[in-house]
Amino acid sequence: MRLATCSRISLLTLLATLMLAVNPQAHASESATRASEFKLSNGMDVVVIPDHRSPVVTHMVWYKVGAADEVLGKSGIAHFLEHLMFKSTDKIPVGEFSKIVNRLGGQDNAFTGNDATAYFQRVAKDRLGKMMEMEADRMVNLRLDEKEVLTERDVILEERRSRIDNNPSALLDEQMNAALYLNHPYHKPVIGWYREMAQLSRQDALDFYKHYYAPNNAILVVSGDVTDDEVRKLAEATYGKIPANPDVPSVRHRPGEPPARVARRLVLKDPRAGNYLMQRYYQAPSYVTAKPGEAEALDLLMKIAGSGSTSRIYKKLVVEQKLASSAGGDYSGYGLDGGTISLYGISADGVPLEKVEASIDAVMADIVKNGVTEQELARAKNSYLADYIYDSDNQATLARRYGWNLAVGRTVAEVEAWPTNISKVTTDDVKNAAAKYLDIKDSVTGYLVPDQSGVAQVDDLPPPSSSGVLR
Amino acid sequence: MTAFSRAAAKVVRHAARFGIASALPALALLFVVSISHPAAAMNIQKVKSPGGIEAWLVEEHSVPLLSLRYAFDGGNSQDPPGKEGLANFITAMMDEGAGDIKSEDYQQRMENIAMRMSYDDSKDSLYGSFETLTKNRDKAVELLKLSVQKPRFDTDAVERIKQQLLANLAYADKDPDKVAMREWYAQAFPNHPYGRSANGTQETVAKITRDDLVDFHKRNFARDNLKVVAVGDITAAELGKILDDVFGGLPAKADLIPVAKTSPVDGGSQKIVEMGVPQSVAVFGLGAMPRKDPDFMTAFVVNHILGGGGFSAKLMEEVREKRGLAYSVYTYLQPYQHATILVGSVATKNASMAESLSIIRGEMKKMAQNGPTADDLQAAKDYLTGSYALRFDTNSKIASQLLGLMQEGFGPDYVENRNKMIEAVTLEDAKRVAARLLKPENLVVTVVGKPTGMNAAATPPVLQPAVAVPGRG
After folding, report:
1. DSSP assignment of B47-97
2. What class, spelled out in words, does domain B43-247 have in CATH?
3. How far apart are CA A299 and CA A279, in angstroms?
4. Which residues pair with A118 in a beta bridge?
5. Could B174 and A272 be called an inter-chain contact, meaning their C-beta atoms sit closer than 8 Å?
6. Which of A58, B61, B320, B376 is most open to solvent, judged by the fewest CB atoms within 10 Å of its CB?
7. Cβ–Cβ < 8 Å for A222, A48
8. Which of B108, B349, B387 lies closest to A158 in CB terms?
9. Cα(B190)–Cα(B109) distance, rounded to whole angstroms?
10. B62 touches chain A (CB under 8 A)
11. Residues of chain B positioned with their CB less than 8 A from the CB of A159
């Protein structure tokens, strides 16, 4: 899915970096191994990524649970719990977690996606042990006070208003996801449906916490000015002391998708829309679910077709035909149960969205029929390999790349084999991937239409009191 | 991310340094204000090219990358009246062809060598960012040089980018956060370039022509208003050559329109811009002391305690943590060249905006009257000094930090002394400066949405917080 992560505090910088995490495979290595991994005796995975240029570290704990693991009727509980993790434990007074981190010169935050939830601190290296101590403590000792929970619930409702309800293109995205997945929980927004969020309780949060938060369902990632030995020693003294929880589900099993019979289409008319926007999402495999090489081929396909002003879609629609003021596409291959291909175009003045859509379809149909050129493919590969080197400048980016991949069950070796696998992709692979996955039956097409007579489509009512589902 | 943000990405990218930053909550903003530095041993060299161009350099040979950050003083304050959005326009045109190379070819060449180049504008400067892999450096520098000295501004590219900018404006006009920020500046700085819309309006951008771009380039891209920082896999001698190559051919002197010193209007005002959204967005702010004022650093610390310190800040505590009124509430101190402001924002459902603003005013007043506690001050100092190194852990962050210092007229030694300046702030200083800085009666407030119980004209009374503050000491 698209960037359906929600974090505790709205840092746009975090969003920007998440976009990198969103496509973690798009940044792997030339050949050198850069991370090492080991396991604690309680089953917690550990990844260490050294970078000794600056005396700071990024410390992350990833839980292999996200919004797609929520039970029916409790949408938003994964993200709500993420907020509540900052409340208190036996050792940490209410609301003090971040203040303690700050006082140690650190910055902290957390975010939730469909498949993973992550907590992190960035801090001077000599504070790493204290961070691990605090993070290990709240892994099992969270305390929630009823009043704190209700206040924080108001906060996530405000967060929903900020991210979704105030923004018609976010509402369109939400509606399209709901239509794209007929049965799989990826059809819910990560932040939750308003009416269900408004009913989430302390007990719901604690149930989710006890079910999923345990060392054997978590991954520790440390990047920066540390060595394996230092991390191992500190991790054993903190996380290592927590017993494994044998009741945590070892297999992540979500409802699957039935075969799609028909393409879905929807139009959102909203007086708050500024532009005529068309977008299309296709269900596609992810790096986890794809056959070997297919996800890499999809990454390269969408780089060539839709990334930036040198892409085929931009050149055709924006430069040549002048049908769109901007247009492009993307592949997101990081999901546990699948990925998506997306296409979009914003109409140039007065151009009907149908024309924009038809032209984008023609660009993609041409690739399905004739493939891409060797030159385009070489350039796209080159560009991904360069991204990898650029990414090695940023320890936080590296930590997110490894963390996200391991959280969806991939291995360090798979992450680091990515550049090799990218370089193996042929023009035939790209053509075949396009032919196979640009199937209109597996898609949803959405239009956003500025309409002054429309009513802003916002749901901020509590559910009717007779609602039986939620009781 | 939604498809729309992808759509806007081309231009948003250019706005990254200051534009987006102004929408960021506290923690991120501290980086932008660029007031600080780490204990890490970082060797900052002052380099002077054979042709006389100065730069700061940090050599870092462990990653085969070079980052350049540079700035031309001027920025969107230089937009001619009626042509607002021109500086922003030019930032989107710098990779649209240069020398003999047309747009598509230029971008293709950039991609072939994985060169990264982007620009953005602020009120006082145009910022350039350039990154290359060591192995492609010569080719990348050649492309950069052409772009800096000979951008083409072909009319077809101008028209295409114009359509994109107009589409972005149409989007921004409906975005409550963006409208609130734009309207706040208009309200705070009437009759001054700072009060004009930085990205222009549909009307002004539509009027911008190729000639305007050529003229703006000629007046703003010069050697005497240039600052450059380089970080990465390069020696001082190599850098010297690049500086002459890329910037040596520019005019010696920029031809800038003078901009007057100013400050936000006093006396307090409140404006409501009606928009049919479920959550109102407010921007609030007032004038502050200039960057070189002896009280600036203390003001920076006071702001951190009030609204700049994320979950450690009073506003977050009172508005979000205690009452659940907002997801985001923050303030930051922004020193522009011709004015300094303390500005903040809060977003809350329409029914809670009046209450949220009352709490914010109340907290400001309390801080002005009593100052922070000794514990608050110590906590702020601990964070600000302890986290300074986090601003220097990547090449590109180092380059941005140093460029900020250079622009503010500091030397490389600032990095070593900065934590001492924070440590030197006393409780008495903090109390005095809080009283000098925080005058809720002067707040300029802009609200976008459909807030209930608010009167556009009147300044509402300050309410005391409804909940007692336990353990404040």
Report:
1. EE-TTS-EEEEEE-TTSSEEEEEEEEE-GGGGSPTT-TTHHHHHHHHTTSE
2. alpha beta
3. 18
4. A62, A111
5. yes
6. B61
7. yes
8. B349
9. 44
10. yes
11. 327
- The CATH class for the domain spanning B269-397+409-449 reads alpha beta
User: Which residues of chain A lie closer than 8 angstroms to B38, CB-CB?
Assistant: 54-55
State pLDDT tens for residues B388-418.
Answer: 999 999 999 999 999 999 999 999 999 999 9
Q: Is residue B107 pLDDT above 90, yes or no?
A: yes
- The pLDDT tens digits for A357-382 are 999 999 999 999 999 999 999 999 99
Domains of chain A and any CATH numbers: 6-241 (3.30.830.10), 264-450 (3.30.830.10)
Strand partners, A269: A449
Contact, B253 vs B222, CB < 8 A? yes
User: Are the CB atoms for B311 and A9 separated by under 8 Å?
Assistant: yes
Enumerate the β-bridge partners of residue B73.
Answer: B125
What is the average pLDDT value for chain A, to the nearest integer? Answer: 91
Per-residue pLDDT tens for A60-106? 999 999 999 999 999 999 999 999 999 999 999 999 999 999 999 99
| A21 φψ region: left (φ > 0), alpha (ψ -120 to 50), beta (else) | alpha
Does the CA dihedral A165-A168-A172-A177 come out positive or negative?
negative
Q: Is A82 among the residues known to form the active site?
A: yes
Residue from A30, A37, A70, A82 carrying the catalytic annotation: A82
Q: Which of B64, B171, B321 sits opposite A274 (nearest CB)?
A: B171
Provide the ipTM.
Answer: 0.90
Locate the chain A residue with the closest alpha carbon to B319. A155
How high does pLDDT run on average in chain B?
Answer: 89
Where are the domains positioned within chain B?
43-247, 269-397+409-449
Distance of CA A292 to the CA centre of its chain: 22
